[in-house]
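During the reporting period the student researcher (J.K.) took over the structure-prediction task from the postdoctoral fellow and processed the backlog of single-chain submissions. One of the processed entries is reproduced below for the supervisory committee.
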Amino acid sequence: MKLNFEEPKNRDQAIADFKGLLESAGWKRVEEIAYNNMEEIKNQILLGIGDEDLESIRRLRDRLRIYKDVIETPQNMIKALTPPDPPTHNEDDPFPFVKVEADPKK
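J.K. obtained the following structure tokens:
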């Protein structure tokens, strides 16, 4: 299945889906589990877990980043899919924004 967010209806539906996901009980449970796991990993990094070497600490840090990325994915997708606000006209701007229409003859 090819994702096409160029069409406004597809983009708007995806945004609504991600917002719905953020409000769902299942997502809240995923966040709760991820935050608890992140705390455990932070404690392992800070307090040590035995004979860890630099490589094992790097793996723990990678796991921490992955949890963070997963938790932030819905918000990041909403932000990426939300079109920017159109520029506003500032009365004091000596070079106001002028919309240029494409030449229909071309």
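The committee noted the following: The helical segments are 8-23, 25-47, 54-81.
J.K. will present the remaining backlog at the next meeting.
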